[in-house]
Amino acid sequence: MLQKRPSISSSNISKRSLRRLGITLHIAKRFLKYTPLLVIVILSILLSKRAFVVKQIKCRINNGVCSREIEGILWHLSDSNYFSIDRKELHWAISQMFPVEKLAYNFSYPNTLEVNIDGAQDAYSIQSFQTVLLPPLSLDLFGASTESAQWRRPIPEIENFVDELEGGTSQKMWENGILTSDTSTATVSGQITHIFTSIPSSDQVRNMYKIISLSNRYLDKPKIYIMDDRIFLSAGDLPDIMINVDSPLENVEMSLQSMNFLVTIKKDARVFNLSFKHPIIK
Q: What ranges in the chain are assigned the alpha helix state H?
């Protein structure tokens, strides 16, 4: 004889319903417990976009005030989010104006971007001209001739050539061998003119910088003309001075220190070539 399945009592159904209700209430309580935290996180994300927007910029370079050119680069970061700043792009942009050795920046309130830059300390302002050919100097054509009347001093010939040039570029020459644009003034009225047929290497620029430094140390406000791998100097009543860019610096310095003696060797000298250990007087 088949047995009948026992019927489910209403008390069992009530227990299951209560158990399910209890689980639902427990989940709801946990959700409500973390809801304020979720709201805070969401609000923080939304507010951070405004909280880290750059509104003002403070810039220091070698513990001094940044130039207008660098401030102009940083100005483009105004109204941008601090976390969206591209460090490599910013470093590259500044290095076009200044040889950067270290770049650091941070955000402070109220909405201020603080930038600190370290790099080379001093630079020479130069006027640069790239030409297809350098001016022909009579010194090179007839300098070996015994007839000195056939050639002239090189500086006047270079000056005449420069007077006819157009489209010069204002640049800064740095000790670490970098040439950068100089937009501080429309033209450069300094004492250094650079004429070149090909862009010099960083090693050549470093040597140029050192020779110019030595020239300014031992000569009185010399006019300086750089033509590819040669430097020509004009100072006071001295003969024109010629120095190869790759000349040993110790020889150049010794010759510049001996200038008062060199002028006594040949009274009518036109050129001192200081490219060698023993200067050549013509």
A: 10-51, 68-75, 87-95, 138-142, 154-163, 202-218, 249-257, 259-265
